[in-house]
Amino acid sequence: MTEASGLQKHFSLSTGGLLYLVQRWIRGPESPDFSIPAQILAAIALLWLPLVLLSLFEGSFTGTKVAQPLFTDIVPHVRILIAIPLLLLADLIIDPSISAATHNLESSGIISDEEQPRFQEVLTEIRRARDSVWSDIVIIVLAFGITWTFKPGYGDSALQAAATSWMWSVQDGEVRYSAAGWWYLLISGPMFQVILFRWFWRFFIWAAFLFRVSRLSLVLQPTDPDLAGGLGYLGVAQQTFVVVFFAFATVASSTIAHDILAEGGTFDDARPEIIVLVLVLVVTIYAPLLFFCKQLIMARRAGLREYGSLGYRLSEAFHQKWIREGDEGVGKELLASTDPSATADYTATYDNVRAMRPIPATLRGVLAVAGVLLIPFLPLALTEFSIQDLLKRLTDALV
Fold first, then answer.
1. Cβ contacts of residue 191 below 8 Å, gap of 6+?
2. Model pTM?
3. Per-domain residue ranges for the chain?
4. Alpha-carbon distance values, 365 to 89, 140, 232, 233, 370 (Å)
5. What is the pLDDT of residues 14-52, one digit of tens each?
6. Which one, of 74, 54, 71, lies nearest residue 63 by Cα?
């Protein structure tokens, strides 16, 4: 996405960094970026297809030559065929909301003219952090370090459960990796980590941006119908990060499924872990919005005080004007007057002030995010019974 000069209205999280510079070098500075479908196809061709071809050549894709063939190992398939495409698609989902949110902050009047220079400084610093080459270098080193440190990836218990797999075999007490295993350790696994960690870094950058903005003196309107002082669009922008954490949840679900199938666990055993994980992810997504809690609470208190006093004066004036004993024509005059409508409008305005939320997010949005993050774990219930059993139960219920 091209960023405008001068006022930085089009802030993007997906651009910048070492990987973006490499793409610019490959395509040329004036050429358009690789499309998201092209990136997804390239990732599958580089990270997944060699695993299939190498395991087919070694005879470990299917069959009984190894205890854990590649075809039945859901973890690499989920990481490469589901999680990575989701993380690449996140550019199209998150960036428009982030761009709109920064533009609204700048142009809506919430940031006063006096605070605009500081706001521009914040944007400049955040862009500098986003464009840092060193952050991507750290991410790459960390990704390779984690993949290599925790090889083969499933722990000692998995080695005991399956002495051979498409990745390795155990000979004389030592793990020997196959060609497909080496490709996963050196290419596929680290690249998945790089793409995931890069989005975590971007999320941290956005959280740092919100923190800095929350330290500015904001002009919040307690009567705004979004019930967040005019910051409701930040909750919408924050909600789009669910796609990143959804991708992470799919990987966590595949790992739990692997443990259940390899170690003989049950879905009931994993249920507390799943609930805690979903709660942690939801809290992580919305935590940056807590930075605005103090100013929103103060704006609500000020609004209740000011509009409460105005409401009393309005009610007193209405009472003095219309509650007159012995005036038989007051009913007809009241019907023709705009005073009742003004009173009703004020009541709705005061209700907005009273209903202000301490964070710019809705309960419905939070519940929707939690529901989305639970979706990857629903297939784990199939480990307790087969689809045939489910269909039989449904048939029995209908008969």
1. 43, 46, 47, 143
2. 0.84
3. 12-198, 220-383
4. 21, 34, 11, 12, 9
5. 877 777 777 666 655 555 667 888 889 999 999 999 999
6. 71
